[in-house]
Design brief:
single chain, 252 residues, alpha/beta, Rossmann fold, 7-stranded mixed beta sheet, 9 helices, 9 strands, 40% helix, 21% strand, elongated, binds S-adenosylmethionine
Length: 252
C-alpha cells in the first residue's frame, strides 16, 4: 500500500498490472508495467517466505536448501530419533568441548543440550549466515561460529572457542558432524577432514551421520579409525552413524 496525502491508496495487484501490460501490447509502457508486475510478485513471494520462516525452522531449512542445495545436502532436518542417537553417543561427563559441524536449524544441538551437554561447552559451526543467525537466537548460551568447518583448527587456536580457567582453549573431546561430506567437492572436503582430524583431542571421538548406509567413512581418509557403526531407519532418508577416533584411542 502507498500513502498519498491522508488517503491510503492500494497499489495495483500483480494480476491487474499484468492485465494492463497485456492490453498495452508490446510498447515500452507495456514492458515497464510487466516488469513492475514481476517486481510486485517477487516482493509478495519474499514476504510470504519470510513469514513462513519466522513461523517454522523447517521453512528456513527449505529456503537454504533451494539457495544452496549442494551445501545443505538434505531434504529436511534430521529426525528427533537420529538427533537423540547422535547425542546419546556423546559422553556428557567429558570436561572438554563438543563441536557440532553443520548445525542447520539446531535439531542435533537441541538433543545435545537435552542429553546434558552444558551450553558453555558446546560450539556449533554453520556455514549459512541465515541458519547461524537462527541458531544464535535459538541457543543464546551456545557459541555459534558462522563459516566453513575447514576453519575449526584456526578458530580453536585463536581463542574463538570457549577456554578453560587458565585461558587456554579447552580440548575438543567430541566432534558431532551433520556435514553432507559426500556432496561437498573433493578439495573442500579434504580441508574439512584434515582440520577435523587435527583438532580432535588424542582420546577424542568423532560422530558423523551419513545417508550412505554402506562403505567407508570419508574421515578414514584423514587417518581416523572407525570404532562403531549403527543405522537409524527412523529418518528421511535412513541414516548411518559412524563413530571414529584416532588410531589406538579406546572406543568409549
Ligand atoms: C544435512 S544438513 C544437517 C543439519 C542439522 N545438523 C540436522 O541434522 O538437521 C547440513 C548442514 O551443514 C551445513 N554445511 C554444509 N557445508 C558446511 C561447511 N563447509 N561448513 C559448515 N557448515 C556446513 C549446511 O548449511 C547445513 O546446515
Amino acid at each position: 500500500m502507498r500513502l498519498q496525502s491522508n488517503r491510503v491508496v492500494r497499489a495495483p495487484g500483480v494480476r491487474a498490472l499484468a492485465r494492463l501490460a497485456r492490453r498495452d501490447g508490446t510498447g515500452a509502457a507495456g514492458t515497464a508495467l510487466a516488469a513492475r508486475a514481476a517486481r510486485v510478485g517477487v516482493d509478495r513471494m519474499r514476504r510470504a517466505v519470510d513469514l513462513a520462516v519466522a513461523r517454522s525452522p523447517q521453512s528456513l531449512f527449505l529456503r537454504e536448501l533451494v539457495a544452496q542445495p549442494g551445501t545443505v545436502g538434505a531434504i529436511c532436518a534430521s529426525s528427533p530419533r537420529l538427533a537423540a542417537r547422535m547425542a546419546a553417543l556423546v559422553d556428557a561427563q567429558q570436561p572438554g568441548l563438543v563441536v557440532e559441524l553443520g548445525g542447520g536449524t539446531g535439531v542435533i544441538t537441541a538433543a545435545l543440550l537435552a542429553h546434558g551437554i552444558a551450553p558453555a561447552r558446546l560450539v556449533v559451526v554453520e556455514q549459512s549466515a541465515a541458519l547461524a543467525d537462527h541458531l544464535r537466537r535459538r541457543f543464546p548460551g551456545v557459541c555459534v561460529l558462522q563459516g566453513d568447518a575447514a576453519d575449526i583448527g584456526h578458530w580453536h587456536a585463536s581463542g574463538h572457542m570457549p577456554a578453560g580457567a587458565d585461558g587456554l582453549p579447552l580440548p575438543v573431546d567430541t566432534i558431532v558432524s551433520g556435514l553432507p561430506l559426500l556432496s561437498i567437492p573433493q578439495p573442500a572436503r579434504q580441508r574439512i577432514l584434515r582440520a577435523g582430524a587435527h583438532v580432535l583431542a588424542p582420546h577424542g571421538r568423532l560422530l558423523q551421520f551419513t545417508y550412505a548406509l554402506r562403505g567407508a567413512s570419508p574421515w578414514q581418509t584423514a587417518g581416523l579409525h572407525r570404532q562403531h557403526s549403527e543405522r537409524v531407519l527412523a529418518n528421511l532418508p535412513p541414516a548411518r552413524i559412524d563413530q571414529l577416533g584416532h588410531p589406538g584411542a579406546v572406543a568409549r
